[in-house]
Design brief:
Layout: H1 10-16, E1 22-29, E2 34-41, H2 58-74, E3 77-79, H3 81-88, E4 98-101, H4 103-113, E5 120-122, H5 124-129, E6 140-143, H6 152-156, E7 162-167, H7 172-184, E8 189-193, H8 202-208, E9 217-220, H9 223-232, E10 236-240, H10 248-251, E11 257-262, H11 270-274, E12 278-280, H12 293-305
Parallel strand pairs: 2-5, 4-5, 7-8, 7-11, 8-9, 10-11, 10-12
Antiparallel strand pairs: 1-2, 3-6, 4-6
């Protein structure tokens, strides 16, 4: 006769997933005027870890499934004050799934967005347990679906200003810093690869400091074909290449321009390079070419933001 399945409480599953014990209680905060869920977690320690010598039992499947669900949920988490505030203030975002903050941060959120927005009050350790290890959350975390990209046509029309295209730039910290620079220098938008680009969440969103909700983006499977479509819409493509004969400053003019940046290791791929109207370099008179792709993008965006006259003859 089969034994009935064992139903374990959530606290036990969290211990097996290495997240420590959890307790919840609710209270009404008079300063916010809303009922808050107060969550606290015991810090993980060695006693929370399963015995290495014990063979996996029926509880292993439940623990593995629970951990998988947590990993999937982590793909929707944003953290950091500027990142979360920008997401909450973006009317094009999907509905919030969960908002967790320390008491001080919850009061600041209520003052900015009103008391109707539900906030879970948690201590810093509890918030950290919801996020990847080492996440600097600054007392606030938000679970929300990723921001939706625009179509290339919606992003690029009308043709004016400058766009940034990233060819196989995959490091989340670099992409986040590039979004931040794009917002600082007034780029019209950022074009990413559909597959070879990180999701706009997590560490990337933290590095962007809210810029992913300020600068629109598009995702394209084939960047070479995207450049062909952009050309038909009136855009000129300038590829950044350290071996190019001309400097970026001499290459840019007043025409709508797509700055195309490649990865640090490989640079621009051949087909993407061939679809650029011109290649340009950032001069480095110091003789020490040490700029990573995020720093190079910031320099290129600054140069593109400078006022210029008409097209060169």
């Amino acid at each position: 006769m089969e034994k009935p399945p064992v139903h374990k409480p959530k606290a036990m599953l969290r211990r097996e997933a290495g997240l420590g014990a959890v307790s919840e209680r609710s209270r009404v905060d008079p300063k916010i005027g809303a009922r808050l869920i107060v969550v606290s977690h015991r810090r993980r320690n060695d006693r929370d870890q399963p015995s290495r010598g014990r063979p996996p039992g029926p509880e292993h499947a439940a623990s593995t499934g629970h951990r998988r669900r947590l990993e999937e949920a982590q793909g929707e988490w944003l953290w950091g004050w500027h990142t979360v505030v920008a997401a909450l203030g973006n009317p094009d975002r999907a509905p919030v799934k969960r908002l967790v903050a320390t008491a001080d941060r919850a009061r600041a959120i209520a003052e900015r967005f009103g008391a109707a927005r539900p906030v879970e009050i948690a201590d810093p350790v509890a918030i950290g347990n919801l996020l990847p290890q080492g996440a600097v959350h600054q007392g606030v975390a938000l679970r929300i679906p990723p921001i939706e990209p625009l179509s290339l046509e919606d992003l690029a029309q009308p043709a004016d200003g400058f766009l940034l295209m990233l060819d196989q730039v995959t490091d989340p910290q670099n992409v986040g810093a590039i979004f931040r620079a794009a917002a600082a220098f007034g780029a019209k938008g950022v074009i990413l690869q559909d597959r070879h680009a990180p999701a706009l969440a997590g560490a990337l969103a933290k590095a962007a400091a809210g810029a992913i909700d300020k600068i629109p983006h598009a995702r394209e499977t084939n960047l070479s074909r995207a450049l062909e479509r952009l050309e038909k819409m009136g855009w000129r493509a300038v590829g950044l290449d350290g071996e190019a004969p001309e400097s970026l400053a001499r290459t840019l003019d007043a025409r709508p321009t797509v700055l195309v940046m490649g990865s640090e290791g490989e640079g621009l791929r051949r087909l993407v390079r061939e679809h650029c109207d011109v290649l340009a370099k950032i001069p480095m008179p110091g003789g020490f070419e040490s700029l990573n792709v995020a720093a190079a993008a910031a320099v290129a965006l600054y140069e593109a933001s400078r006022p210029r006259g008409g097209p060169k003859s």
